[in-house]
Amino acid sequence: SGRTATVQDRVGNYAASGRALGARETSEILRVEKVPCPADIAPVLGVEPGEDVVYRERLNKIDGKPVATGHSYYPPEVTAVTPELAMADATPRGSRELAAERMGSRQKDLIPVITSRLATDRERELLELKGAYAIVTQTARRVLLANGKVVEVAVKVNEGSRPVSFHVP
Length: 169
Fold this sequence. Notes:
With 169 residues, the chain is of the alpha+beta class. The chain has helices at 7-17, 42-45, 76-81, 95-102, 121-126; strands spanning 25-36, 52-62, 65-74, 107-118, 135-145, 150-159.
């Protein structure tokens, strides 16, 4: 359908094939580093503003065409038990899934906030958007474990005309 895999797709894909992404989808890790947690992310992530967190930036493609870019923040509690998150390699089953397993709790809630806005210069470049102005859809999500811990805060950006939908049991 030309969309990236949903959370449910990723879980099903991994169970069937050992790979979280769909057959036509790839995810390239562009940047991984420790950064001071931005003030708008810190309270959602459960850390203090400026505290070091792991930041991962990625680009998703379907059939080689960029369809989404995004970045995730992981708190020290999560990266302490999941050191792979601080490495530039993609995790075959997905970073959230690996972190949840290592923290001994299943993923329970995914809380999305969806907005539309103008693309940044970096997003226009990564998504190959034409023109000086481009509208994107931003999905910011917080993923909670059954034990109440926040495992990830992530922001995914798609070209504005791409549909975004959720089914989050």
